[in-house]
């Protein structure tokens, strides 16, 4: 399709109508430390409202003028009616995104004027930080020790770290989480680790939690 036809097709459902589904705010505004979590919250809203094409650039800005013929059949240019519609739609989405940025982030993007430019700018600013955050979480999973924590507190900590990885788009399987949990047990849990090694099938997280809780109760008793 010619560019004008493709743009008209992409905007056929818009026609300058506002998107009430974009009037709300996400739970956490974007700060310098939560880009992945913010993106996870905001992306479904953009897809659900049918406006993600303004974010990823698949609905490019139409030209301001388009070719036409004057009354004498001579070539000329006239205003493109699709351009103001696109600008109105794009600015609605841009305004929604800006309203979900914290003040500390907002002051860094004051010169951005389109939705795609804002999305690209934020990704460039925080992608490296997101990778660093993932690495830090994995390091925490490796280094966290149960120590004197209760089984419930220890499991809550480890599950929380696994949930953070999932929110960052790097989920881990239960068997990997179990390996981190067992790695954090000290020498006194060796009997439990040996019993698990002798199992034919891998225990589930709930089973591991139950066994660890029972082991702690027995240690207290003795």
Task: Quickly list its features.
222 residues, mainly alpha, 2 domains, two-stranded antiparallel sheet, 10 helices, 59% helix
Detailed description of the structure:
This protein is mainly alpha-helical and 222 residues long. The chain folds into 2 domains: 1-129, no CATH class; 144-222, no CATH class. It is 59% helix and 5% strand. It contains 10 helices and 2 strands, in the order H-H-H-E-E-H-H-H-H-H-H-H. It has helices spanning 3-10, 35-48, 52-56, 82-99, 103-106, 115-143, 151-167, 174-183, 190-197, 205-221, and strands at 65-69, 75-79. The protein has a two-stranded antiparallel sheet with strand order 1-2. Helix 6 packs antiparallel against helix 7 (151-167). The chain is elongated and about 100 Å long. The N and C termini lie far apart (79 Å). The model is unreliable at 1-9 and 12-18 (pLDDT under 50).
Describe the secondary-structure layout:
Elements: H1 3-10, H2 35-48, H3 52-56, E1 65-69, E2 75-79, H4 82-99, H5 103-106, H6 115-143, H7 151-167, H8 174-183, H9 190-197, H10 205-221
Antiparallel strand pairs: 1-2
The domain count comes to: 2
Percent of residues in helices comes to: 55-70%
Alpha-carbon distance between the two ends: 79 Å
N-to-C SSE string, H for helix and E for strand: HHHEEHHHHHHH
Give the strand order, joined by hyphens, for the main sheet: 1-2
Q: Note the main sheet.
A: 2 strands, antiparallel
């Amino acid at each position: 399709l010619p560019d004008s036809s493709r743009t008209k097709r992409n905007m056929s459902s818009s026609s300058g109508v506002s998107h009430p589904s974009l009037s709300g705010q996400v739970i956490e505004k974007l700060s310098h430390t939560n880009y992945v979590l913010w993106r996870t919250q905001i992306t479904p809203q953009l897809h659900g409202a049918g406006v993600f094409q303004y974010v990823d650039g698949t609905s490019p800005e139409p030209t301001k003028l388009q070719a036409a013929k004057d009354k004498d059949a001579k070539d000329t240019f006239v205003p493109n009616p699709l351009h103001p519609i696109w600008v109105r739609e794009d600015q609605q989405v841009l305004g929604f995104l800006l309203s979900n940025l914290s003040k500390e982030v907002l002051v860094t993007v004051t010169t951005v004027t389109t939705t795609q430019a804002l999305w690209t700018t934020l990704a460039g600013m925080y992608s490296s930080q997101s990778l660093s955050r993932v690495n830090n979480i994995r390091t925490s999973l490796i280094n966290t020790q149960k120590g004197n924590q209760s089984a419930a507190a220890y499991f809550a900590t480890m599950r929380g770290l696994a949930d953070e990885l999932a929110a960052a788009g790097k989920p881990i399987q239960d068997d990997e989480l179990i390996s981190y949990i067992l790695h954090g047990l000290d020498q006194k849990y060796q009997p439990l680790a040996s019993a698990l090694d002798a199992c034919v099938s891998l225990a589930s997280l709930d089973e591991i939690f139950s066994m660890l809780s029972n082991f702690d109760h027995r240690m207290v008793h003795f």
